[in-house]
Amino acid sequence: MMRHSLYRFLAALLALATFLAPAAAQAKQKTSFIFIPLDNRPVCYDYPVRVMEAAGYKIYTPPAKLLATRTAPADTEKLWDWLEHRAEKVDGAVISTDALIYGGLVASRTHNIPLDALQARVTRLKNLKMDTNIRFYGFSTLMRTPRESYGNVEPAYYSDVGPAIFKYSQLADKSDVHAASLLEDFESGTLERNMAKSHLKDWLDRRSKNMEINRELAMLARMGRFDYFAVGKDDNAPYSHTHMEARHLALSNADVAASEFQILPGVDQLGLLLLTRAANEQAGRVPKVYQMYVEGVGAKTIPQYSDLPLGTSVPEQILAAGGSLVNDPAHADVVLAINTPADGITRDSTDLSNQYFASPSNKRYITNLGHMLDQGRNISLADVAFSNGGDNGFMNEMSLRGFTERLSAYNGWNTADNAIGFAIAQGMLAETTPKENQDALLRERILDDWYYQSNARRIISTDLEKKKENALKYNLGAHRPEIRNIAQQDMERLSKNYVITVGTTFQVDFPWDRLFEVSIENLKTSRSLRNAASLRLLPDVPVFKE
User: Where on the phi/psi map is residue 73: left (φ > 0), alpha (ψ -120 to 50), or beta?
Assistant: First the structure.
């Protein structure tokens, strides 16, 4: 009798194991990804990797020496070789097609590669042999249309004729949308006659190649070569060639589902955005995001360097990251807090209007954020009231109230679309990112986006302008050590003022030898100092107050 009972017990265990095996296999987390970034800038290369690894994922990247720098394109052949002969078994791959086809972002604007050679690289992508279990994500760029550009990141002539080309581009887009007026026709003709024909032809020819390559990449997305593909609109405006090309590309791919193909504002955030999508899809997650704007123009804001209002672009980026939008914070996995300018006009963070005083509407908004933090909400802050840096008044008020260090993430760098993309991604990844890792990432962005971009960069820029040495902003050269010391000292002064960075040791450098971006290295924080500080400012440290 006991023997029969034992048999029945063992049979039941076997049946249970058989039943649970598929579920266990399904629950197994897939955690490793290949990542080929756009170039070697920290926001494109180092930071996305740190964010993903902080959340528990393993990221395999090519050696840094193969990637594009400001002055040299990527070694495309060696990048291809690395991708085609990767040794690691991974669960997904996120690649910048610009890196593989042109050699990086700057190269995509300055190259002289024949169209047939570019098309051969698209064909190579089409024929790339990958394990069928590896999910494949890609992103490309539409060439930007900047109002002006310096520092050798466009063809040399753009420094002189950039504003004229931008105006010509605006008129071309308007004419494409509706019949041009006689005045617009006259103005466009005048611009053409006054520009060197070789300059305009060079610019238009390169744009034509870029557009053709994006059409072919979109076709690969239609054919299923990618599980998802995004085309990023580099710096542009509501009327520009970039905006016009995006419209044409969207129309020709209107029948492709947004779950497979999107055209998005911004470029530099796409690597992290797609890595986050890959992580969400591997885990079977669709994070719910609630967007929360500051009083004022809010969702109707069309930021600098963008062609879309945030009310359109933010939901698009949430979808790109593998999430969905909800209208109630109680049902959200992530509260995306978006600090926008009250009047909807974004200025550079070095503008004199970026002072250390919060407006009454900002204070009311911050009070509401505090209530949500008290409820345990996962809040990721996109600080986009200014371009290229944080809002001094807003962040000072957040820190005075002890709210900054309670955020899951903070981003205020570069364009609004860049910062929002990172904020969405980090908010979604917060669930698997330990608080200690969140704090480390938070400190880095506070140091970079707030202390450096909005403060140290302003001090250095103002001094260079007074000395009529503007060119140094774009090529630091022999002045790099001196300028690095100024930045370091000002950031260290600010780091002592706020609890989130008290006791933090770090080193600043300029990886592209220009003021626009910095790298923050050896980021460490003394636990004893931070614990002693509690959730307020140290009493013996001067602080900006109203």
Answer: beta
Question: Helix 115-126 to helix 76-84 angle, to the nearest 10 degrees?
Answer: 10
Q: Give me the DSSP letters along 90-101.
A: -SEEEEEHHHHH
Identify the CA nearest to 345 among candidates 358, 336, 354. Answer: 354
**58 to each of 93, 97, 421, 476, how far by Cα in Å?**
12, 21, 21, 35
pTM comes to: 0.90
Residue 288: exposed, middle, or buried by beta-carbon count in 10 A (0-12, 13-18, 19+)? middle
Contacts of 218 (CB under 8 A, 6+ apart): 229, 231, 249, 252, 253, 256, 261
Q: Say what the pLDDT of residue 528 is.
A: 43
Please tell me the distance from the alpha carbon of residue 272 to that of residue 353, in angstroms, as a whole number. Answer: 31
Orientation of helix 46-54 relative to helix 435-445, angle to 10°:
160
349/355 Cα distance (integer angstroms): 10
Residue 366: predicted pLDDT:
98
Q: Which residues pair with 398 in a beta bridge?
A: none
Tokens of 376: 């345990």
Amino acid at 83: L
Which residues fall within 8 angstroms of residue 413, CB to CB, at 6 or more apart? 43, 388, 389, 419, 422, 445, 448, 449, 453
Instruction: For the beta carbon of residue 95, count every other beta carbon within 10 angstroms.
Output: 24
Contact 432, 276 (CB under 8 A): no
| Residue 533 pLDDT | 39
Of 269, 280, 274, which is closest to residue 428 (Cα–Cα)? Answer: 280
pLDDT less than 70: residues of the chain = 1-30, 87-88, 179-180, 182, 525-546
